[in-house]
């Protein structure tokens, strides 16, 4: 007699919730702006504790006993202020300029370069003077036209994860839709794209999702949306007519990386709707770190499996005036060639923008 063992029902995972800060600071001037007022209403409606501060650059009284605790609390703290510096940084190789709408992120990716670039200010800052930021962008576009000027909105943050609070990406997308010579792009590890789906974009905004081998997502990307959620969101973005892309970053050399990255491309191919595969771009960034980053990461994530052995790496001069450690040439080449082949196997029409 055959005994039928009922299949175990698959555990339904809860969707990754949109970010809700534990504490919010406001610069008084921010409340003179519509966006600032709206954020205040949202804060009150959600019963979130808030305080006033003189400057978004000087939040000194954050709670927490140890540095690690302070860091964790800072990552759940939102600061609402005005962007004063309207000179944009360069953002090679993905765009000409970084457009600043937010700084800091609630994700806990161990390898994230914000660990060092934000120094002692890991809290999340959002800027409400979007009009000023758009005027500055307009000047950059005018200066370079008829060349196209591309703006990257995710250089210092993951703005998709903050969109339900600020609406700033929506403002940028609408603005860029009417700019003949301006383009917007941003990358995300969050799937909360619904506020972007019905916006007029004219194909001038490219939205990319950061994806990786399961090993990397599982071990190094806490507090971000799951792979399946990101892919589902990518399908929605393509359906809304936006140009779509993927960034595979950081590419990590680990035992089993070939299987890991093959599987990544297979899963993308299986799960992406057909309409998402037209005009698809890929960017590839190998893992790198500086000595400062290594120290900070070891303090903040002491149990991390992230390999940062200087003896196994090669140096490259970095724009922050420090050497960064990348993989030796032969490993770089192996990663690049292997993943490139897998990309073209899965998506023969895709465009690879760069490997760095
Ligand atoms: S989601 Fe992006 S910006 Fe946020 S911590 Fe992770 S790598 Fe950094």
UniProtKB/TrEMBL annotation:
It comes from the Bacteria. GO terms for cellular component: endospore-forming forespore. Keywords: Lyase. It comes from Paenibacillus urinalis. Its EC number is 4.1.99.14. InterPro entries: rSAM, SPL, SPL_Bacilli, SPL_firmicutes. GO terms for molecular function: 4 iron, 4 sulfur cluster binding; DNA photolyase activity; S-adenosyl-L-methionine binding. This is Spore photoproduct lyase. It is an enzyme of class 4 (lyase).
């Amino acid at each position: 007699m055959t005994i039928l063992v009922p299949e175990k029902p698959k555990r339904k995972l809860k969707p990754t919730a949109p970010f809700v800060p534990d504490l919010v600071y406001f610069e008084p001037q921010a409340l003179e702006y519509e966006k600032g007022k709206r954020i205040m209403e949202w804060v009150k409606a959600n019963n979130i504790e808030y305080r006033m501060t003189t400057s978004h650059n000087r939040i000194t009284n954050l709670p927490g006993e140890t540095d690690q605790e302070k860091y964790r609390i800072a990552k759940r703290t939102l600061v609402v202020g005005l962007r004063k510096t309207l000179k944009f940084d360069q953002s090679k190789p993905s765009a000409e300029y970084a457009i600043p709408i937010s700084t800091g992120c609630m994700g806990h990716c161990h390898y994230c370069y914000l660990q060092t670039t934000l120094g002692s200010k890991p809290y999340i800052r959002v800027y409400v003077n979007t009009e000023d930021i758009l005027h500055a962008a307009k000047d950059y576009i005018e200066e370079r036209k008829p060349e196209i000027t591309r703006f990257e909105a995710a250089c210092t943050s993951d703005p998709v994860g903050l969109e339900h609070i600020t609406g700033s990406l929506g403002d940028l997308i609408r603005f860029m839709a009417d700019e003949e010579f301006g383009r917007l792009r941003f990358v995300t590890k969050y799937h909360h794209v619904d506020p972007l789906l019905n916006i007029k974009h004219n194909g001038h905004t490219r939205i990319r999702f950061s994806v990786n081998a399961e090993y990397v997502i599982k071990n190094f990307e806490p507090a971000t949306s799951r792979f399946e959620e990101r892919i589902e969101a990518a399908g929605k973005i393509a359906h809304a007519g936006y140009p779509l892309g993927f960034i595979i970053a950081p590419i990590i050399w680990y035992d089993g990386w070939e299987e890991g990255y093959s599987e990544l491309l297979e899963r993308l191919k299986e799960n992406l709707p057909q309409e998402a595969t037209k005009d698809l771009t890929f960017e590839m960034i190998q893992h790198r770190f500086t000595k400062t980053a290594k120290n900070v990461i070891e303090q903040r994530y002491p149990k991390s499996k992230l390999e940062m052995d200087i003896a196994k790496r090669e140096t490259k001069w970095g724009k922050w005036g420090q050497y960064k450690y990348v993989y030796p040439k032969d490993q770089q080449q192996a990663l690049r060639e292997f993943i490139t082949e897998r990309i073209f196997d899965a998506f023969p029409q895709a465009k690879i923008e760069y490997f760095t």
